[in-house]
């Protein structure tokens, strides 16, 4: 292992331990009388892409329904922490959250079931988006795959897991830390390819620890990886498709392709807390979020892959994922089982830091 790689890994291990131990709280000003809340909802969402999301979904929803929307933003971890502290009564009406954290909240009974009787648009979305393992539907998804420089690797090299065992590319490849969205999907892919199933964590970690000397960085932020990629410091790695969109559109010599084996996807889900103050407004918002109009706008302005089957997927997205957007499950993509992920994730994060990043 080169000294530069060793130093990077030491820093990553320390950062991972700090991040795992630190959880902050968010807040939202959701007070008001029952009359005020009948014409207003609070939506808890991610801290990025807020301006685009407001233009694509929030403003059109208010225009269509007359219901005002207050946004409360924060990381998945922070918002889950608040939900737990308030026992599902944190003043929000709809929580937009990644599937892993939604599963952990579901495990604690913090969300209530969203059904087609209350949200008719559930009948118009892809089957994987209405997974009964979750109380709320998916409204977008991300595919895990190979993100690479076309001038350094061909597609066959980039999409094969064997790339990471090849010492020829030592110091020129990157993999995600388990804590980021692509991380757990990557672990599942390695478990599927080299072990018995996606949850064969011991085999996945043992395999990845063997690759570790070749890995320049186990990145904790995808922008760290894309910066290394555009600068030519790394030739390839694993990432979700969304981070390829702007790079491909800008004409960078970069492509994204699904990995050969062990294809997994993550979803973002629309969940309703058990203590939602404006339940009717929450149902209306989720129904609108899943509608063709909102899904089309989200695909065009936010860059979300749509779950509504009637949406015309924009070219900027198909330039990256091709016809996978028509039906990712037909191409072998799967979602992870929340019953496996939710109770085990904290232990997996610690084990990954010890056995893979620290290898």
What can you see in these coordinates?
With 359 residues, the protein is an alpha/beta fold. The chain has two domains: 21-141 and 268-321, Periplasmic binding protein-like II (D-Maltodextrin-Binding Protein, domain 2, 3-Layer(aba) Sandwich), CATH 3.40.190; 142-265 and 340-357, D-Maltodextrin-Binding Protein, domain 2, CATH 3.40.190.10. Helices cover 42% and strands 18% of the residues. It has helices spanning 3-21, 34-37, 50-65, 76-85, 99-107, 155-158, 181-194, 201-211, 222-230, 245-249, 279-289, 292-302, 315-321, 338-357, and strands spanning 40-45, 68-73, 94-98, 111-112, 138-149, 173-176, 215-219, 236-240, 254-258, 264-273, 305-306, 334-335. Strands 1, 2, 3, 4, 5, 6, 7, 8, 9, 10, 11 and 12 form a twelve-stranded mixed beta sheet that branches. The longest helix is centred in the C-terminal third of the chain and has 20 residues, at 338-357. Residues 1-35 have low confidence and may be disordered.
| Uncertain segments | 1-35
Name the CATH homologous superfamily of the largest domain: Periplasmic binding protein-like II
**What is the correct CATH architecture of the largest domain?**
3-Layer(aba) Sandwich
| Overall CATH class of the largest domain | Alpha Beta
CATH fold naming of the largest domain: D-Maltodextrin-Binding Protein, domain 2
Counting H and I runs of at least 4 residues, what is the number of helices? Answer: 14
Residue share in β-strands: 15-25%
Please indicate the count of domains. Answer: 2
Helix/strand-derived category reads alpha/beta
Q: How many strands, which pairing sense, and closed or not: the largest β-sheet?
A: 12 strands, mixed
Mean pLDDT: 90
**How much helix is in the residues?**
40-55%
Q: What does the overall shape look like?
A: globular
